[in-house]
Amino acid sequence: MLAVARRFDVAARDARNRALGKAGERCVFDHERATLAAANRHDLVEKVRWVADLDGDGAGYDILSFEPDGRERLLEVKTTNGWERTPFHITRNELAVADARRETWQLIRLHSFARQPRAFAICPPLDAHVTLTPTSFVAGFS
Predict the structure, then answer these.
(1) What's the domain range around 62?
(2) Does residue 12 form part of some domain?
(3) Tens of pLDDT along the chain (142 residues)?
(4) Total structural domains in the chain?
(5) How much is the CA Rg of the chain, to the nearest whole Å?
(6) Does residue 140 lie within any of the structural domains?
(7) Is residue 109 part of a domain?
(8) Which of 4, 70, 93, 135 has its CA 20 to 30 A from that of 102?
(9) Residue 122: which of 92, 83, 95 has the closest Cα?
(10) Cα–Cα distances in Å, from 14 out to 33, 84, 112?
(11) For residues 50 and 28, what is the distance between their CA atoms, to the nearest angstrom?
C-alpha cells in the first residue's frame, strides 16, 4: 500500500481533472453559442456567459445560456473521458441551485471526451436519475 500511496500524485490528478472540466465547459459554451447563432438569435449569442470562468465556481452552474425563445438555461457541465455512467462529483450548492431553479437548470454530462465526445442532459430532480452518495463531511466544533 505504501508504494501505491507514494506513486499517487493527488495534486497532478486534481490539475488534470480541472483541465478536463474546463475543456468540457469550453466545449458546451461554444456549442451553446453556435446553436443560438444557427437559430438566428445573434442577440442571445453575446449574452451567453461562462459563469464559472468569469465569476468563479460558486454559482451552482457553469454556463448561463438561452433557449432560442429567450428563456434562460443554467448549465452545470460534468466531463469525463470515461463512459456515460462514470460517477461524478456534485456539490451541495449545485444540488441546491438545481432544486431551486428546476425549470432552467440542467446538468450536461460530457463523456468519452478525449476520444469521441458525447453529451446528454439531466434535469432536476437529480435523484430521479442518479444515486446521490455523500462522500465527504465538514467537521465542526460544537
Answers:
(1) 17-127
(2) no
(3) 565 556 778 888 899 999 999 999 999 999 999 999 999 999 999 999 999 999 999 999 999 999 999 999 999 999 999 999 999 999 999 999 999 999 999 999 999 999 999 999 999 999 999 999 999 888 999 8
(4) 1
(5) 17
(6) no
(7) yes
(8) 135
(9) 95
(10) 29, 20, 19
(11) 9
